Amino acid sequence: IDYTPYLLRRIQSLALIHCDTVDYTYKSARRETLNHLFSERGTCDDILIVKRGLLTDTSIANIALFDGTHWYTPRQPLLKGTKRASLLNKGILAEKELRCEDLPAFSTIRLFNAMIEWGESELPVQNIIT
Length: 130
Prior knowledge:
This protein is mostly beta strands. It has two helices and nine strands, in the order E-H-E-E-E-E-H-E-E-E-E.
């Protein structure tokens, strides 16, 4: 068993990375594919993965996009996390198919997971590099 201290990384930019074969349905220590995709981020802080034309997750978190009124999360994320399920159950989030070409309709992207609280990590959509 390995223990690694958790440190919240400050994310200010995301690289849009396309990969139709990535599968991370269940949380796992086997992150080879995610680590490889992360290595392709260039000068960005993290990646936003696109699978079959749909936005999914970053390398470490689920995402939500804000249109000025509502928060939407991908209907088909790589990992249906527990924080995501909780936010959906509370009505804070709604599921939606989100495509790259939909990004200009949104102002903000939030990253969240069991360790990143809702609202703790967000950036302007303009900081997503295509």
